[in-house]
Amino acid sequence: MKSLKLISLLLAVLICLPVLASCASSGAGEDTRPPSSGVGITGNFISADYKGEDFTFLFLQQLAGNKDYYGGNYLDAETLTGLTVEDAVYKRNLATEEKYNVKITQRIESAQAEEPASILSKFAMAGDYSYDVIYGWGYKMGACIVENLLGDMSTLPNVDLTKEYWSPSALNELTVNNKLYITINDISMNKLEWGSLLFFNKQIVEDYGLEEKIGNFYDLVNSGKWTLDNYLAAVTSVSTDVDGSGTVDITDVYGVNTGDRSGLDVAFACGVELVTKNDDGTYTLAYYSDANYDLAKKINDVYKDSKYVKDYVDLGVDANVPDGMEIHQYYRSFFASSHSLFCTGTANITGEFRNMEDEYGVIPLPKRDENQANYISTIDSNASLFAIPSTYRQDVSTASPDRTGAILEFMAAASNQLVLPAYYETMLKGQRLNSEQDKAMLDLIRNNIHYIFCDMMGVDNLREIGNNCKEMFKAPNSASSVYRSKSVTMQKALTDFYADVLKLDTQVAK
User: What pLDDT does 458 receive?
Assistant: First the structure.
């Protein structure tokens, strides 16, 4: 017995020797992750060795209560956890670290307590540039532009901004004075999570015979015939006073659950633009026109009728919000409990419908008519965006535009190949979006995202343009007089913003 124990002990020591040797050579407290990701990322990427130095994302995080809705856990993962998306982030980062001999890190600052522009200005004053990329709170980043805190991403070497794992639409819609200060790429899933879409209840479609009356929603989308007229026809086909109270209230069945009775999200999907970019790079107000007035009337005729449309004001009356439930989740819970045919929203909220009894699907918001070339999904202006600082860090020897571009390009492509499929796997199979049709719809939505310029730039005077456009869709009959009274001021805000950007010198620093 003693001999067997001795032999076992010797075998254990022999087995452990390589591990002990590895620990001795690596030093205490160093990264003990596996030596190889085992993941091959396809594509043409430059080769470089960045000496094991840090590549740091500064995450300007916005919280809603204790939840991070708008950024997500997409930048850093220290170990495999068994969670699908987090493990994909881990594998992507490890593949990046192996390819470029670099250490991916994240530094979190609260954008809830302090504005992003204030945070970045404070760091600049202190000479603190110990970060390579900024990942921050959507429209709040706009103020960073005019404060000369952001660099021009379009000048980064080793980057192809036309690739699908970036956001090609940003090149036109977010470029100001030929410079791109903020954009989205597939390092995060925000291009998918925060694009506007429609959820629909498949059981209500069947109960009201909508496929026979209007058509199969998926087929209509694929044929280019999912139009405003078909959408409004579907909305006005669903209205039932279930409890016999004499009115269709929030506990009955109705056409759409929406955050805004103006229908402006639908209008944007129909191609309404707040401003247009002129050939010389300047901007002109564009939302008020005869065609858009007619569109506003058509949407308003349906959206003002509460027997078809319930917005968050309606849904918040005498609200009885369960403990631990966020108020907007409460509003959407009426769709989850099958009180509405449609719910406007984004892919981010699919988890709220995980326990929904009825099957649901996703489709894009409708086109204005069949002549509109593509479906349009607008990005929520709260979604976190990527930017680069106007001054490069000095605390690592390899920091440069070449390094930033190479790493961002590789990480975005790797995310497209690793994180995006994992996100689909989690969302589609784990949260009841379990059909190939829904995956196709989400691909279509993701590949047709657009940005609302005045929202994404974030400057208060520009956001006021969006507020005035919303008023036009809420009350089209008074739109003309309101527009005439405010158009001069709104146009001046656009002109002044562009003039402020012209003063900046934000080419990528060398």
Answer: 81
pLDDT in tens, 341-352: 999 999 999 989
Q: Token pair for residue 201? A: 């209840």
pLDDT confidence of residue 38: 54
Please check whether residue 69 is in contact with residue 382, taking contact to mean a CB–CB distance below 8 angstroms.
yes
CA distance 97 to 171: 28
Query: Residue 117 and residue 387: Cα distance in Å, rounded?
Result: 12
242-251: long-range contacts at Cβ-Cβ below 8 A with a sequence spacing of 24 or more? 247/307, 248/306, 248/307, 250/310, 250/314, 250/315, 250/317, 250/334, 250/339, 251/334, 251/339
Closest C-alpha among 469, 413, 433, 297 to residue 356: 433
Is there a contact between 133 and 159 (Cβ–Cβ < 8 Å)? no
Give the chain's domains with CATH numbers.
53-192+382-430 (3.40.190.10), 197-378+460-491 (3.40.190.10)
- Is residue 108 exposed (0-12), middle (13-18) or buried (19+ Cβ within 10 Å)? middle
Whole-structure pTM value: 0.88
DSSP string, 314-368: HHHTT--PPTT--HHHHHHHHHHTT-EEEEEEEGGGGGGGTT-SS-EEEEPPPBS
Rounded distance between C-alpha atoms, residue 506 and residue 509, angstroms? 8
Angle formed at CA 13 by CA 12 and CA 18, multiple of 5 degrees? 110
User: Which amino acid appears at position 458 of this protein?
Assistant: G
Helix%, strand%, coil% for the chain, nearest 5: 45, 15, 40
Angstrom distance (rounded) from CA 452 to CA 283? 13
Find where tokens 């709170």 sit.
137
Mean pLDDT per 10-residue interval, the chain, length 510 residues: 37 38 37 54 96 97 79 89 91 97 95 89 92 94 91 96 96 94 96 95 98 98 98 98 95 96 96 95 95 96 97 92 90 97 95 92 98 97 94 93 98 97 88 87 95 90 91 92 93 93 63
Query: Is 125 strand, coil or helix?
Result: helix
